[in-house]
Each structure stands twice: as structure tokens, then as C-alpha cells.
Amino acid sequence: MRPIAVVFDIGNVLYDWDPKVLYRRLISHDEALDVFLRDVCSKEWHFQHDAGRPFAETSAELSARFPQHADLIAQWGPRFSEQIPGPVVGMPSLVAELDDAGVPLFAITNFSDEFFAPFRQQEAAMFDRFRDIVVSGAERLVKPDAAIYELALDRFGLAPHEALFVDDRHENVAGAEAVGMHAVPFTDAATLRAELARHGFLN
């Protein structure tokens, strides 16, 4: 049975995310920048925010471990939107085309709730096209846990087979498939357009 709605991931599907975009402005040497993002403000550390931990707690803990970097650590939360340089090429027009065609659009994102709120407001032109967005930090559930997909489907009013899920991470695609959703890995807008056409969304 063909899906009737598209459910997007946000980071690296709708919008690029790269902490270097912010920290390149704050750390002048490339090697020091790489070490800082590998050993201090790492993606593993940041994942706590996606899971619902407040930045005030995680930054205090990290600053206690790396007091020499406390000022840099403190920039992560309030300037998180500066880590997002803009939309992925071709995606705003593709989202607009789907919405204009009446396709129901939703999102499930691993994202800190406190970081997402200002970003959502900043990018209203894109996100106002979505009927609902499930944010992991608000739910304290993260992809690829089956529970976040099941919660989202219930909230969206969709049966699993009615949703086509799009994510750049293969484990998240597999997680969606495991609960019965159609799912495709994201690489770029042109490839996704072909997949959407194959599933009957676009001509």
C-alpha cells in the first residue's frame, strides 16, 4: 500500500549541521579546532541534549572536566543555531512543492528541545509547512528507538504503512522500517525526488 504522508528528519536532510561553522570563528587553528570538537564538545556529548538533558547540566559537567575550555563550551547552547549554516541544497523547493501539492508533511528529529525552539522560530518559512514535528529532546526518546516512531505515528494520526520516512542515518531508516513505515535513506534532493516519484508523491 502506498504512503500518503512524508515524514522528514531535519539535521542533514532539511538543514546542514556542522559545529565547525560556529567554532571556526572562535578557534583560529584547524588542529586545535578538530581536537576540541573530537575530545571536548563531541557529537557523543551533544547527543545528551537530543535525549533531553538540559544544556545547563551538560555544560557544567563538561566545564568541570575541561575548565580551560569553559568559555568555548558555554557558547554551544546559546549559539547553537550558528552551527546550522542553512538548508540542504534543493530541499526548501522540494518541501514547498510537496506542501503545495497537498502532501501531509511531518518530521521526527533528534534535536534538543531548548535548541530547537529558537531555530524553529527562525526558520518559520520552512517549518510552517509541517503539520507536526516530534522533537526527541521534548519526548526524551531518540531515534532509532521504536518508541519515538510509534509516538509520532500516533500523534500524526498515521498508520505505519501510510508514512514515508526520510533520514540520512541508516540506523534511523532501519528503525522506521522495523515499525512498519516505508523509509528511504537521504543523500541529496535529486535522489530523494526520484524516490518520492517512485512512491507516487511527485510526477
TrEMBL record:
One Pfam family it belongs to: Hydrolase
Any one GO MF annotation of this record: phosphoglycolate phosphatase activity
Gene3D superfamilies given in the database record: HAD superfamily/HAD-like (3.40.50.1000)
Keyword annotations: Hydrolase
E.C. code: 3.1.3.18
Top-rank lineage group of the source organism: Bacteria
Record flagged with keyword Hydrolase: yes
Entry protein name: Phosphoglycolate phosphatase
Organism whose genome encodes this protein: Sphingomonas dokdonensis
Taxonomic lineage from the root: Bacteria, Pseudomonadati, Pseudomonadota, Alphaproteobacteria, Sphingomonadales
